Amino acid sequence: MANEGSYYVPAQSKWPIIASIGLFLTLLGAGMMMNDMSAGVKDSSAHYVFYTGGLLMAWMLFGWFGNVIQESRSGLYSAQMDRTFRWGMFWFIFSEVMFFGALFGTLFYVRVLSVPWLAGEGDGAMTHELLWPEFTAQWPLMVNPDNDLFVGAADVVDPFHLPLLNTLLLVASSITLTLAHHALRARNRLRVKQWLVATVVLGVAFLFFQAAEYIEAYHELGLTLSAGIYGSTFFLLTGFHGAHVTLGAIMLAIMLVRVHKGHFEADNHFGFEAASWYWHFVDVIWVGLFIFVYLV
Which of 7, 116, 143, 216 falls 20 to 30 Å from 46 in CA-CA distance? Predict the structure, then answer.
């Protein structure tokens, strides 16, 4: 059993190099797909490169985290290692805060500066008069400066329909996850499982209704990535958030499996806490999206 003064030195591992290769192939494949879409290429190897990278990343995560779980349950980690894991998760979530901060910054820059400039405010009056004299600044931007090339959406997404439902689902999931955490501290494993199942179900329901919202926006409202800056920012922000919800739901599902196997103690369950931190972060980001993408 490790003690406060000890520090665990892991054995040599193949996982870092596999992670590097998987990440490289995933990003390469994604870049190739975007280039193919821009060039109108229908048949290429881009998808295979992307999926190969994704499978390598999944294998790496499963194997690497499996090793960490084995080491932890073998008593190899000390309190100092626990603090190291906590700081690592803190900086990871901080990096995600900065990531979404950049996306929100893009949205605010477009709404507050770019669109008014194109409509003639500030130093853009000459450009406006020469190129788009009929363009009027508004948000959401339904009529683009060059509306022949980038046809705007027919209408905005109703915030009090599926977006409001999804907001309620995610807020409820934060409550059920908190109840699961309290049950774990109280050593009530049955309640932990029940509340975790409820949290995962709510997360999956969120993804289902977001997919339904995308289908409705695409087919009924004409809101696409080609619908101008409103469509681009909408799908950029909500799409990346949906990816984070997917990852968070997978993490919580793994926590459920671990609880079922008897992992975690009332005073030693950092893996559960880390997944909870991530999920609460994702929920807070959605509240910001609901306000600034749908309402304001």
Answer: 216
Kindly report the CA angle at 80 between 74 and 84, in degrees rounded to 5? 95
Look at phi and psi of residue 122 and say left if phi exceeds 0, alpha if psi is from -120 to 50, else beta. Answer: left
Buried b (16+ CB within 10 A) or exposed e, 16-42: eebbeebeebbeebeebbeebeeeeee
Residue 75 predicted with pLDDT over 60: yes
pLDDT for the residue 12 = 85
Cα angle at 131 between 125 and 133, to 5 degrees?
A: 65
- Looking at residue 40, its amino acid is G
CA–CA separation, 278 vs 274, rounded Å?
Answer: 6
Residue 124 confidence (pLDDT): 58
CATH of domain 78-295: 1.20.120.80
Q: At residue 60, does pLDDT exceed 60? A: yes
* pTM flag (> 0.85): yes
CB-CB contact of 294 with 159 (8 Å): yes
Mean pLDDT of the chain: 89
CA 206 and chain centroid, separation: 13
Phi, psi dihedrals of residue 180, rounded to the nearest 5° = -65, -40
Q: Measured between alpha carbons, how far is residue 196 from residues 23, 65, 208 in Å?
A: 30, 20, 18
The encoded tokens of residue 163 equal 């977006």
Q: How far apart are CA 93 and CA 106, in angstroms?
A: 20
Q: Where are the domains of the chain?
A: 1-77, 78-295
> What residues have CB less than 8 Å from 252, skipping those under 6 apart?
177, 196, 199, 200, 203, 275, 279
> d(Cα 206, Cα 204) in Å, to the nearest integer?
5
Cβ count within 10 A of residue 10: 9
- With 90 as the cut, is the pLDDT of residue 238 above it? yes
Tokens 């190897």 label which residue?
45
Q: Residue 24 and residue 108: Cα distance in Å, rounded?
A: 31
